[in-house]
Each structure stands twice: as C-alpha cells, then as structure tokens.
Amino acid sequence: MAKKGFFSWFRKDKSQDEVVAETPVVTPTQDDATERLAQQEQAEVQQAIEVEAHAHAEKQAAEQLTAEQAQVKAEAEQFALEHARIEALDFAKQQAEATRLATEQLRAEKHAAEALAVAQLAAEQRIVEQLAAQQLAAEKAAAEQLAQAETAQAVEPAAELQPEPQERPVKEGLFARLKRGLMRTSENIGSGFIGLFRGKKIDDDLFEELEEQLLIADVGVETTTRLINKLTEHASRKQLKDAEALYDLLRDELQKTLDPVAIPLVPNNANGPFVILMVGVNGVGKTTTIGKLAKQYQSQGKSVMLAAGDTFRAAAVEQLQVWGQRNDITVVAQHTGADSASVLFDALQAAKARKVDVLIADTAGRLQNKAHLMEELKKVVRVMKKLDPEAPHEVMLTLDASTGQNAISQAKLFQEAVGVTGLTISKLDGTAKGGVVFAIADKFNIPIRYIGVGEQIDDLRTFNSKEFIDALFTQEKADS
C-alpha cells in the first residue's frame, strides 16, 4: 500500500469542508411550509386516487348494470321466441287437425253423394228400361200393323182399285186424317170457342172466359196474354160488339203465331250426307219419328242411313234395327254402353264413304236436368264437326205434346245446350193439350218441321200452319 503524503490528507479535508458549505441551512419556518406542501400534494394525490377509484367503481357498476339489462333482455327475447314457437306449433297442430277433419268430412260427403248418385242412376235406369220395354212393345205392334197394311196394299189386285178412289185427291184424305188427329185439341181450341163466342157481347167476362179456355188448352200464360191483348185492341179499335166477330180475329192471330215457324226441312247437302241429330227425352217417340222419317225420305228417292247413338238402352238399338231391316236401311250400331260419340263418328264416316244422302242419328234420351248427359250431347256435336264442320246440319228436338208446359222447359234446356234448329211435336192425336204448339212457336221461334198425329207413317206430317189452323177450326165448324 502506498503511503499517502501530506497533501493528500489536505485535499480530503478541503473537500469535506466544501460539502458542509453547500448544505443549506434549514430554518423552522421553511420546514413547516415544506411539510404543508407535502401534505397538500399527498392529499391531492389521495383525492385523485379516490376520484379515479370512484369513477372506476361507477364504470364497473354501469357495465354490470348494462350486462344485467342485456341478459334480462336476452332472456326475455328467448322466452318470447320460445313462447311464439310453442304457439306456432300449437296453431300448426290445430290447423293440421282441422284440415284432417275437413278432409275426412269431405271424403265422407263425397262418398255419400256418389252412393246417392249411383242409387238414383240405378233407379232411373230401371224406370227407363221399364218405359223402354213398354214403348218397344207398343212400337213393335204398331210397326207390325204398318207392315201388314203395306203388304196388303201391295198385293191388292189392280182390279179392286175403283176409279173413284183413284180420282180422290190425296190431300183431302190426308187433311181428313189431320182433322181426326187434332180432334181432341180442337175440343179446346175449336168447339170450345164456338160455344164461348156465340150469342155473347164483348166484355171483360168474355175475355176472361177466353183466357181460361186458352190456358186449359196449354197455350201458355205469355202467349195467352199476348192474344188477349191483341183481341182487346182489335175490338176497341174496330168498335166490335158482336162476340162472334172475334172468332175470325182469333183464328188469324193464332195462324200469325205459327206462320214464322212453319219452315219445312229440306235435307239436301251437296258436299256429303245431310246429318240430322235427333235429341229429346225418353218416351217422346223419338225413335219412332226416326223410323218414319227414314221411310219418308226413302220414298222420296233418297238413300238413308241410321246411327244407333242411344247406347244407354239396348231396346233403343233394337228398335232402330227393326226399322232398318223392315225398310232395307243400313243401321250403324255398337254394343250397349259404347261411347255414343264414337258410334256417330263411325256412322258419319260410313255415310260419307257410301255417298249416302241422309244420315239420321239417334241419341240417348236425355233428362233435361241431367248435366252430364247434356255435356255428352255437346261432345257428340264436337266429334261430328271433326269430320264435317257443318254437321249436324239439323238438330231436331222431339217433344211430346201431351206433356204440355213441360215441353217448354225441355225446349229451353236443349236449345241452350246444343242449339236446336228444328222441332218435331209428337202425339198430338192423343192429347187435348195441343195448344202447347202455339206456346212453343211464340216463345222460341224454332222451326216446327213435323207434327205427329197418328200411328201411320203418313201421320208424321210436314208442319203447315194453314192446314193446322184449318184442321182445328174446320173441325169445330163441322161439329157446329
């Protein structure tokens, strides 16, 4: 270790003195201020710490409150969703159950309706078959009588034909038969009138009696009202006082009612067969009318073909075949229950191929309140038009005069369904309700082609309004 010299110790002592000299001298007053300042700073720091702690606590409390509120809201939303899901599930179950019950009820109602329809159809079928059997028997008997009469006339020796019958005008004989056929109708529109007008004055009572007489004859309310108004107007304008003067006026008005519909059917078609579609309800004499028309057209030199479109009744096909065999006329037919439109399509094809002049097509006897049968009839018309856009050239509705005002409803329904172009009014010889001819003519203005006034072939007559009126009123005058 080196020895320190004297100067080393001197410098050391000098440094210590300098340190002592640099240290300030603290007085008691300065100590108090410093202490207060330190305390103040410490208090401020403590206050800042407390403020910060309080703010932090408030922030934490706010965050906790927000979190709690969010949790409550989430729980509420979850509850609402769950509640809605449960309600939706319950509603869906209720809807499914209601749908199931409705489906079952609908199925049960449909089954019941089908069963009822089948039962009704079966009952109607039985009635139709019974009526058909009765009608077939009657028509067969009538046809046999016709055949016998025709045969007897054919083999009758020429020597037995006296000159006087040969010279007798045919029209007189036919007119006499027309009068006989209309005899029952003329009792109401004929002899009833002469008793009504004779020796009476024209007053309200007379017109009331006339109105009643016309209604009894089934002239119909609308037509009767129109006739009474016309007669009242004439009587007032001409100042008539004698009731018998109204007689000729009534006759003229009745003929004016029929004149517009007295349009004969001319079955000519240069482009192929003239197609006549026969429609009508069961029992009106439609099939018999077809047979008589076929015979008349054949006697006029026309070739004729028949189509057995009434596949609903076996008896109808058999009836038509009997007429065809008797008159050597081709009948196109299929089995019972076959599609009617198919039968008529085949018949029209065959008629075209054979260049037949007239094709007469039978159809099922439609009940005018059976919509499905009327739709089938529309289908028949559509199918025919595929082969010939103009076919059928005539839609002929057969009406039974003895049904009276029911014939009006039949004409209305068939007219709406297929557009009737001509009428045949049958069985005028067996009824006193022949006044329905006037009602039909006045209401529909459809041409009346033929009227049936007896069983013979010639008793299906081309409708002539003048002859018809003459037969009614001449019969009445003859009786008077």
Automatic annotation (TrEMBL):
Q: Where is this region: Disordered?
A: 18-43
- The UniProt record gives the binding positions of GTP as 280-287, 362-366, 426-429
**Pfam family membership, one:** SRP54
The record's EC number reads 3.6.5.4
Coiled-coil segments: 55-109
Sorted alphabetically, which InterPro entries does this protein's record hold?
A: AAA+_ATPase, P-loop_NTPase, Signal_recog_particl_SRP54_hlx, SR_rcpt_FtsY, SRP/SRP_N, SRP54_GTPase_dom, SRP54_N_sf
Q: Does the keyword Transit peptide apply?
A: no
Q: Give yes or no: UniProt keyword Signal.
A: no
- HAMAP family (alphabetical): FtsY
State the protein's name. Signal recognition particle receptor FtsY
Q: Which residues form the signal peptide?
A: none
Record function comment: Involved in targeting and insertion of nascent membrane proteins into the cytoplasmic membrane. Acts as a receptor for the complex formed by the signal recognition particle (SRP) and the ribosome-nascent chain (RNC). Interaction with SRP-RNC leads to the transfer of the RNC complex to the Sec translocase for insertion into the membrane, the hydrolysis of GTP by both Ffh and FtsY, and the dissociation of the SRP-FtsY complex into the individual components.
Recorded catalytic reaction(s): these are: GTP + H2O = GDP + phosphate + H(+)
In this protein, which residues make up the domain named SRP54-type proteins GTP-binding?
Answer: 447-460
Extract the SMART domains matched here. AAA (SM00382), SRP54 (SM00962), SRP54_N (SM00963)
**Family the entry assigns:** Belongs to the GTP-binding SRP family. FtsY subfamily.
UniProt topology in membrane: Peripheral membrane protein
**CDD domains reported for this sequence:** FtsY (cd17874)
Major place of residence: membrane
Assigned keywords, A-Z: Cell membrane, Coiled coil, Cytoplasm, GTP-binding, Hydrolase, Membrane, Nucleotide-binding, Receptor
